[in-house]
Fold:
Amino acid sequence: MNNKTFQKIIGAAESTTIEWKKSLSVFHEIMETISAFSNTEGGKILVGVSDDGEVLGVQIGKGTMEDLVNKIGQHTDPKVFPKISVKKVGGKDVIVIDVKESRDHLILADGLPYKRVGRTSPRMSKDEYERLILEKHRGALSFDGEVCKGAVMTDIDAEKVMHFLSVARQERGLDIDAKSSVKDVLMRLDLLKGSKLTNAAILLFGKRPRSFFTQSESKCVRFKGLDVTGEMIDLKPINGDIVAQLRDIEKFIYDHISMRAWIESGKMERQEKWEYPPKAIREALANAMAHRDFRTTSKVQVRIFDDRIEFWNPAILPQGWTAETLKQKHESKPFNPLLAEAFFWIKYAEEVGTGTGKIITWCRGWGLPDPDFEYAGSSLVVTLRKTKLTEQYLKDANLSKRQVSAFEHMKTGLKMTSIEYAKMFGVTDRTARNDLSAMVEKGLVKKVGTGDRNTAYVLAEI
Structure:
């Protein structure tokens, strides 16, 4: 970094990767920033620069630099030894501490972890730090691969194991002899550690999985309306092994969504189609069941509303991933690799790393909007919508406040006439007709009835 570039850095504001410190006397703050930079994307600390960017300079003695390097190493865990240099700015010395991003983002300063957020270095929460540790040891500490304490072979339902084998051989050509013993099948599927059953073995084939894992239960809810404040039409807890749970949850979903029927033009044949693509439903469910964090008390939830289905999964995303990562090409990093592999063998899930992409493709092929992926609190939420009239769609339509209010009114299933519109918003009948006609042109609503007196407007079916 030449002097010209360095002066530009000082002249700019602090950022995610630049921090100013007035002197070495604020060593504790410097250590917090070193931890934060190490645990984010790296950065430079300029010592001898005030909070407003004025170059103050620092006094550098014979052992200052060596002592600083050693002191940083003593106060970090694992030890950090950043590159330290001195730059002359206007005849004054400025110390530059160049911190590299750590591989696992687990650098502590005086026993505490920090992260970089904009121009600040807040302390990580306990949950954030524990998630990073779990991510680092994902392979060795995966919940499904751990030995299930107290479980013995009599806790396994042999019929479930052999049925699984039969389906896996047929669907994916699983190379395990159909005449194998239950123990051999479990061993070949890596569901045994020595002679002991893993958590995955109980979750997949246990007679009573909930007696070992109370959190393995799932919950299904059908709400009337568009949010959780609506009437709860149906609530059902789902228990059993996770394969059976997936089937039972699917049944609950199909009991509460509609199938559209029509006569194919020219063929006089009746056609039927679910509101949502069944493959997308199964993939979203399989992801929620196989990739969830069983160490939490939270449960997988399926929430059905009038306009959408939400799949709530108490999941831990891999380090560096966001919900947006799931919409792009990405490698497979299942939190429970044994469960994910089991679902793959019986075609309950797609090839590794392609599941979320397939959900998007299936929704588009169904004429639906792209599914939403968002991280809400401690859960990953996948939302399938049966209409393109999403918040973003409406935003792009540039509706007026009157039109938005009218649209929300019609979302409840109510019709609206131009006279009602005019009365509701205190406008002329002509303005009302113009507003409603514009919404028709945008494809948001449609006319029903004949003649001016009988014409009304309802939500378009898109």
